[in-house]
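To close the section, here is one more complete example, presented without commentary so you can practise reading it yourself. The ligand is flavin mononucleotide.
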Amino acid sequence: MQDQPRNFPTTQSNGEPLKPITQAILDRRATIHFKSDAVPDEILEAILKFGAQSPSGYNLQPWRFIVVRDQENRKRLQKVAFMQPKVAEAPVTIICLGMKDVCSSGFPLSLMKIFP
Ligand SMILES: Cc1cc2nc3c(=O)[nH]c(=O)nc-3n(C[C@H](O)[C@H](O)[C@H](O)COP(=O)(O)O)c2cc1C
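Output:
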């Protein structure tokens, strides 16, 4: 499939091999503060492409992602995120948009008429 991630990193940023998914789930924690180190393009692309593998009802994929790298824009975003420092602190912030119109368009219901 064309949108599957390719050439994604096989090591962590410290050079260690990637963790098994079970260990990654156990080690995952919310992050309070972020370093300002740049996120390499291949890592960012892998995050977005792996995220896009998520399934969705009727395969509608009613989401869009906006990558915010610009510092001024991250500061603007911080204002609508309860002024949380991490929003402007992290070198990249990803806005996840849910496309509510997809659900109100009646598309799933029209599908049910075709495939009762
Ligand atoms: C949908 C969602 C939204 C969240 N929003 C924030 C947030 O705005 N600010 C924040 O500091 N943490 C946020 N968190 C992190 C949670 O507070 C955190 O996951 C929870 O306290 C459990 O801690 P842990 O992730 O380290 O296990 C969010 C988590 C989820 C799942």
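Once you have examined the tokens, check your reading against these statements. The longest helix spans residues 41-51. Residues 21-114 form a domain with the NADH Oxidase fold (CATH 3.40.109.10).
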